[in-house]
Amino acid sequence: MAAATAHVLPEASAVRDGRLSVGGCDCEELAREHGTPAYVLAEDDLRARARAFTGALAAHHDGPGEVVFASKALPCTAVLRLFAEEGLGCDVASGGELHLALRAGFAPERLYLHGNAKSAAELAMALEAGVGTIVLDNLEEARRLAALLDRRRQRVLLRVTPGVDADTHEAILTGQAGSKFGFAPADARALLADPPAGLEIAGLHMHLGSQLFAIEPYRRAIAALGALGSFEAYDLGGGLGVPYTAGDPALDVEAWVAGMVEAAHAELGPEATLVLEPGRALVAGAGVTLYTVESVKAGAAGELLVAVDGGMSDNLRPMLYGASYEAHLVTRMGEDGAACTVVGKHCESGDVLVRDTWLPGPRPGDVLVTPATGAYGYAMANNYNGQPRAPVVFCSDGRSRVVVRRETYEELHGRDV
To answer: Which residue in 8, 50, 3, 1 sits closest to 327, CA to CA?
Structure first.
């Protein structure tokens, strides 16, 4: 395959005679068998990414540590089960994600419950399930949890807003001053000085945002945690950036983990428990989305408008914050083409999946692929215009299996009363 495209496709991908395969499965045949749109995941790639993170942490940190999957990136039972098998912990941000993680087989003590507005019902659910760690976001939540404990004890971390800006879109920035997430340092100090009964404060948590490629903001944030005192455990969050287009830097798990551990050892000491929470970096590049081209027509600037059978119902990121993707025709990979804009089927002018791409003679019936959609495609899928949500298909060794089936019209409207 072309070098410019290879680093945004799953590792278990190949291009032969212009035809794309993922996990040994021909993508055009996958589209015929499973329909489109469809989320396709390379199962072996998911496992390899999990092992890259756990191996890097073990290589660079002699003390206790844990890699935890931020499940909001891809809250799919089969994916969660796979990561449980690979020895990861799991970060859940709602009662629904907690339910999925338990159903997938995660041991409750390996779960971390996050969220900036946890309800009493969600906290009670976590206590009943035996969730190992609850990450507290604010003083009210600390009091709410303490009231539910009834002389029991619960391990918690305090999410601290370190007041560090990072180079990413404001919609996915979380560690800056004024963020909706976490304790301001002064509030964290107040709670640490007089914690409610039953809360076992094991340490601190932080998260700076998503799609971060530089280690320096993490260093400054880790230093801010160190200023709050010495603790048993520090959860340093995730946010490692991944490539979506040919111009993006390649994913370097080893370098990111090494940089995080080096900063933690310098600011927090080498003995503390370190927790890393990759989400996007574990799943984005392992997945692609397949579409069928429905129509092609001329645009106002001389480009071709290539309309596909999905759009903002299966990938909302371009509409939310201008996320960029590549697009290719799965049977004519690497061929020269014409300027195109890939648009979705929905009744919104902003339903545009990929701008300024080049496709070789697109025509109705072609199968089109957008790489690097393993994160936040399925997670944000919706039913706009009554569109049923797409299936999730695992591929490995030339075999495919549906792990989330396509939603039906009956299921889509089944809650109407």
So the answer is: 8
The angle formed by the CA atoms of residues 400, 86 and 315, to the nearest 5 degrees, is 50
- Average the pLDDT over 201-218 and give the result: 90
CATH 2.40.37.10 in the chain is located at 3-42+285-412
Cα(207)–Cα(70) distance, rounded to whole angstroms? 11
Please, what CATH class does the domain formed by 44-283 belong to? alpha beta
pLDDT tens-digit profile of 42-86? Answer: 999 999 999 999 999 999 999 999 999 999 999 999 999 999 999
Structure token pair of residue 273: 């428990």
Task: Say which residue the tokens 């996990």 belong to.
Answer: 23
CA-closest candidate to residue 138, choices 71, 209, 225, 196:
196
- Using left for φ > 0, alpha for ψ between -120 and 50, and beta otherwise, residue 363 falls in beta
Q: Is 27 a catalytic residue?
A: no
Can you read off the two tokens belonging to residue 92? 């859940």
Inform me whether the pLDDT recorded for 173 exceeds 50.
Answer: no
Residues of the chain with CATH 3.20.20.10: 44-283
pLDDT for res 413: 81
Q: Which CATH class is domain 3-42+285-412?
A: mainly beta
Contacts of 63 (CB under 8 A, 6+ apart): 270, 271, 272, 273, 274
Bridge partners, 189 (sequence order): none
